[in-house]
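Quick one, tokens below. Sequence please?
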């Protein structure tokens, strides 16, 4: 048996602590800002980098941030290119790549991709395929949480066969319900339903959306928890079975099930609830046999009860704010753990050594037009001036003025993360940064974000998100 830094024990993992495989050349099987983020972490570790890009991404910033870049797919295949396992692995083998980081979305939670990497001797920077099988599938993750004695939202235990099966279950559990994609994340394949007709329509649209985004169209239903707080716990686990948490994030402010603004740590969360969430998150990760970075997500009801909803066994978009409050580079930790290093070897031997300081807030600047029902906007950036300064971190997905915003991918333009010693001061820094941005050529959601940050309840750190 081995004991985790939290004091819990679990069976010893099969990987020997001495079995280390140094990563010298790393590919990112992704695009945009997350690819840039990983390239920067790898470069700081002295690791050479390889980018892959679709024809539509031939001018994207990420291909120029890597030491070398190679096109995958043909013109007219903007999404399929990044989901083509054979093509990605083919380039990796041809270029002598030691490891592949999947980023988030696309192949990041794909069990087959993880297995194929192992079969050809390439390190997959993420969980082993067995853990992905249990956690990448949200239904399997729900079952795992139940086995670990962690409360889950009432829902279906298997993928829904058809729209009629969805209607039957919805009437059994009672409206409203939430239809969800069993694979993937980012709000895709999620629909809130209040009656039979909405369930039927949502089943078709959610299945189609999930298939396009993740290559898997299975969906399931859960009872809707009314106006909850969305709290997630950041986890790091090594291949020897040791697990630590990096505290929590509040991701309650969402639009169309997409996170918009995130805060770390959660303001006003009762300490007993916080500690219980940490313990439950670690139990789920231990039960899954996961190593690397993962996020365990919970819904906290207005009655004070919370429920497990899913594990994201990968890097999260909002990981930046956890890095700001802890000083821990999560991407570099992922790489070192994938090499076989223990938490102790990367400076995380004890949970008590990990301290949260101050407050960090992230806002996602997108090319969506709030004046046109948030329709994604496309075109050439004729002007782009970002706003940094003390306490501000920028994670861009574009190179700046002259960049072309295409309709093929998500609308994220840049992530703006603010850190300060207090929530109020972090709000002030974030708002100042947003006000200083100058973007021309495409519409952005910056006015919408400014309104959120100005809102009295957000300034006070309250969980009320009714103004979204």
């Amino acid at each position: 048996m081995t004991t985790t830094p939290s004091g819990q024990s679990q069976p010893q993992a099969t990987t020997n602590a001495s079995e280390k495989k140094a990563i010298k050349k790393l590919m990112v099987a992704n695009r945009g800002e997350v690819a840039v983020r990983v390239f920067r972490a790898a470069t700081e570790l002295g690791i050479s980098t390889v980018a892959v890009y679709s024809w539509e991404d031939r001018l994207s910033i990420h291909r120029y941030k890597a030491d070398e870049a190679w096109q995958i797919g043909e013109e007219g295949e903007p999404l399929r290119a990044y989901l083509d396992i054979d093509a990605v692995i083919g380039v990796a083998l041809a270029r002598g790549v030691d490891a592949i980081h999947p980023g988030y979305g696309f192949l990041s939670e794909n069990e087959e991709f993880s297995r194929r990497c192992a079969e050809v001797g390439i390190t997959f920077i993420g969980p082993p395929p067995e853990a992905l099988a249990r956690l990448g599938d949200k239904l399997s993750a729900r079952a795992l949480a139940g086995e670990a004695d962690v409360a889950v939202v009432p829902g279906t235990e298997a993928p829904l066969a058809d729209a009629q099966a969805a209607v039957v279950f919805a009437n059994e559990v009672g409206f409203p319900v939430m239809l969800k994609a069993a694979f993937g994340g980012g709000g895709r394949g999620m629909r809130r339903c209040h009656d039979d007709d909405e369930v039927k329509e949502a089943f078709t649209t959610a299945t189609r959306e999930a298939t396009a985004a993740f290559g898997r169209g299975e969906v399931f239903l859960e009872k809707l928890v009314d106006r909850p707080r969305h709290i997630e716990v950041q986890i790091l686990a090594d291949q020897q079975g040791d697990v630590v948490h990096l505290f929590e994030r509040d991701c309650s402010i969402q639009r169309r099930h997409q996170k918009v603004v995130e805060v770390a740590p959660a303001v006003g969360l009762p300490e007993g609830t916080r500690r219980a969430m940490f313990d439950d998150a670690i139990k789920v990760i231990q039960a899954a046999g996961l190593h690397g970075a993962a996020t365990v997500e919970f819904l906290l009801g207005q009655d004070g009860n919370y429920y497990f909803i899913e594990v994201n066994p990968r890097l999260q978009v909002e990981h930046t704010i956890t890095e700001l409050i802890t000083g821990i580079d999560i991407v570099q930790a992922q790489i070192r753990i994938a090499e076989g290093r223990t938490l102790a070897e990367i400076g995380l031997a004890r949970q008590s050594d990990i301290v949260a300081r101050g407050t960090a807030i992230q806002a996602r600047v997108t090319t969506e037009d709030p004046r046109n029902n948030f329709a994604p906007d496309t075109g050439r950036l004729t002007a782009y001036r970002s706003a940094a300064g003390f306490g501000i971190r920028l994670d861009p997905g574009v190179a700046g003025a002259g960049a072309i915003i295409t309709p093929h991918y998500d609308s994220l333009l840049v992530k703006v993360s603010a850190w300060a010693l207090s929530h109020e001061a972090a709000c002030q820094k974030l708002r100042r940064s947003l006000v200083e941005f100058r973007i021309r050529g495409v519409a952005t959601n910056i006015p919408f974000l400014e309104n959120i940050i100005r809102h009295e309840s957000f300034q006070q750190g309250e969980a009320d998100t009714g103004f979204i």
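The chain is about 30% helix and 25% strand. Confidence is low (pLDDT under 50) at residues 1-18, 464-468.
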